[in-house]
Design brief:
By secondary structure, the chain is mainly beta. The strands form seven sheets. Strands 11, 13, 17, 18, 20, 21 and 22 form a seven-stranded mixed β-sheet that branches. Strands 10, 12, 14, 15, 16 and 19 form a six-stranded antiparallel β-sheet that branches. Strand 33 (536-547) and strand 34 form a beta hairpin. 36% of the residues are buried.
């Protein structure tokens, strides 16, 4: 009986052990993979503006099972997958050990990347892709760990609806049909380029090239370097608006267009904002690419680059190359600014240019376009070249010219009509009112006048607005059939000026004509302050004053906005004809004088005869 009880207890224990064993083994069960594989549905981050095409590389493969207690899928018997080259498998070592390292580093099962370093390393040994991508889904995936990233031509920069975007790089475990919300860099850098405007006749905020302290010599002559502009200036200003008058608002207003005299120093402020997701990059290359038209010359050593107010200029190297139509392409390039930036950092480039003698006059202006070329591919992290670029931001500098035609009224003997005809023998100079310049007196007009052809000094290499006339030299030899005699000027142009107060002065008066007193006038211009494509919208010139002989006068100039010109006739009247110079007055005086002389002679003879008697 005792033996039976012992056997019964042993049987009960065995049953318990068996039941426990069955229960334990039942916790993990192998899972069959669907015939057509698993499907990954990619849900893009709503902050991402790009048009993406994704591809999957199988890093590890293995046997898929389900842990019923943990309610989780697991992968066993891990081996290298089809997405890693034989070279990579040898270099990276044992697949199971490498997989443990990835898990320890925080590899995701939900689209959050915690193993960026491992992804960087794996991306150097990628081989064949797995599955098929279409309409936001990758189908036909076998169980395993996958590196999901943008295809080589993604984001698609050929699609007109595409906006700048960054590539992705994630390690994802595929053990069932999966939905994955991408956590790509949700935004890319933005860039905005601005300049400042000024009116010499109202303020002297910025120094002229010839008066500024210290500097290096650009290609078109020695120009002193202006004072350095602070990056903090980039945060000043505001939205502006097309109808905002920069003179009223002040010279700190940042704008998309401005006007300057030839030879002026022009400040530029470029503000770029780093996009989100910078944590996915081990290294981050960054470039400012600026295309300056032929009329703009960079002032060497005037540039400075700051990140969140910290000078990082030493990280950048400046190079230049010839562009189209005489333009110069300047590139400030840094191979890695990762340690200087975070999400949303402001990287600000400031520099100065000179409006040179090749400047385009009028509505076409002198454009300056800039874009940022940035590292948009975290898969390379210093191993490749930057692949993304922002849309170009354009800024335009305008400059103008004045044209004065010297004329005199001529009356038609037959019709009596008076027409204006060109008058030779005159000469003119144009002066500009420049605040801060020494006062000079010109024909009774005392003020801070500076000759426009000397705004930036009188040195041989000084860059200034230029004076031009229609005078010509003789062509050929006198007596030849094709001989053309020299012609004196009747038209005087001053090219490369901006808005301000001016004084046109007749320095040589044609013989026999009355001298013209200086004429003061104001040049005003309107151009877009805030615009993706800034335009010159208005150009006017007008003045007036009081003439001691003719009284109050009004001076209105004719505007040609396309040519950027303001023109006017300056009329000279002949002087009064004195009687002693000839004509009927001379004859009357001669006849009267002769009659008086004859009468005097007769009277003298009569008196002598009477005296003799």
């Amino acid at each position: 009986m005792k033996h039976f009880k012992r056997m019964l207890a042993l049987a009960a224990a065995l049953i318990m052990i068996v039941s426990m064993s069955v229960s334990a083994f039942a916790e993990i069960q192998n899972v069959e993979t669907p015939t057509d594989g698993f499907e990954l549905t990619i849900i893009e981050n709503t902050d991402d503006n790009g048009i993406h095409t994704y591809e999957a590389y199988q890093i590890f493969k293995g046997t898929l099972a389900f842990d019923s207690d943990a309610q989780a899928y697991i992968l066993s018997d891990i081996a290298w997958g089809t997405g890693i080259t034989a070279e990579g498998q040898e270099a990276l070592g044992n697949a199971r050990t490498y997989a443990k390292d990835i898990v320890a580093a925080g590899a995701p099962t939900n689209g959050v990347n915690g193993a960026a370093d491992k992804a960087d390393e794996l991306s150097q040994y990628l081989d064949a892709t797995s599955g098929t991508y279409a309409n936001g889904k990758i189908s036909g995936l076998q169980p395993g760990y996958y590196l999901i990233q943008d295809a080589a031509d993604s984001p698609d920069d050929t699609d007109p609806e595409n906006k700048p975007a960054s590539k992705t790089k994630f390690i994802l475990q595929i053990t069932k049909h999966t939905e994955w919300v991408t956590n790509v860099k949700s935004s890319v850098p933005s860039v905005e380029k601005k300049t400042k405007d000024k009116n010499d006749s109202l303020s002297a905020d910025y120094q002229k090239a010839g008066a500024a302290p210290g500097g290096d010599e650009p290609e078109n002559g020695e120009i002193d370097q202006p004072e350095q502009h602070d990056a903090d200036d980039a945060e000043e200003g505001g939205e502006g608006g097309e109808n905002v008058d920069p003179v009223i608002v002040g010279s700190d207003l940042l704008m998309d267009s401005a006007d300057y005299d030839i030879g002026d120093v022009i400040p530029y402020i470029v503000t770029s904002v780093i996009g989100n997701g910078i944590d996915y990059f081990k290294a981050y290359s960054y470039q400012f690419v600026d295309t300056m038209s032929k009329g703009l010359t960079l002032v060497e050593n005037s540039w400075k680059i700051e990140a969140d107010g910290v000078d990082i200029s030493e990280k950048f190297a400046l190079t230049s190359a010839a562009g189209e139509n005489g333009a110069t392409v300047y590139t400030w390039a840094a191979t890695d600014i990762r340690d200087a930036i975070t999400n949303g950092s402001k990287v600000v480039l400031t520099y100065d240019v000179i409006l040179n003698s090749d400047a385009v006059i009028g509505v076409a202006g002198n454009p300056n376009t800039l874009k940022v070329v940035f590292d948009n591919n975290p898969n390379y992290c210093g191993h490749g070249e930057p692949e993304g670029d922002t849309p170009e931001d354009i800024n335009i500098i305008f400059t103008y010219k004045t044209i004065f035609n010297k004329v005199t009224p001529i009356e038609d003997d037959e019709t009596g009509e008076v027409e204006l005809a060109p008058l030779k023998g005159a000469d003119f100079e144009l002066y500009k009112l420049v605040v801060g310049a020494p006062e000079v007196e010109i024909d009774g007009n005392k003020n801070s006048w500076v000759k426009v052809t000397e705004l930036n000094g009188t040195a041989a290499d000084a860059v200034n607005p230029r004076k031009e006339t229609n005078a010509t030299e003789a062509v050929g030899e006198e007596g030849d059939d094709d001989y053309q005699p020299a012609e004196e000027a009747t038209q005087f142009s001053f090219t490369g000026i901006d808005d301000g107060t001016y004084l046109i002065v007749e320095t040589v008066t044609p013989a026999g004509y009355n001298h013209i007193l200086p004429i003061q006038f104001i040049v005003t211009a309107e151009h877009d302050i805030e615009s993706d494509d800034p335009k010159l919208t208005a150009l006017t010139g007008a003045g007036g004053g009081e003439d001691p002989e003719t009284g109050i006068y009004e001076f209105i100039m004719t505007s040609d906005i396309d040519e950027g010109s303001l023109s006017s006739d300056i009329v000279n009247e002949k002087g009064l004809v004195l009687p002693a110079t000839g004509g009927i007055g001379r004859k009357i005086f001669m006849i009267s004088g002769g009659t008086l002389l004859a009468a005097a002679v007769v009277l003298l003879i009569v008196r002598r005869r009477l005296a003799m008697r």
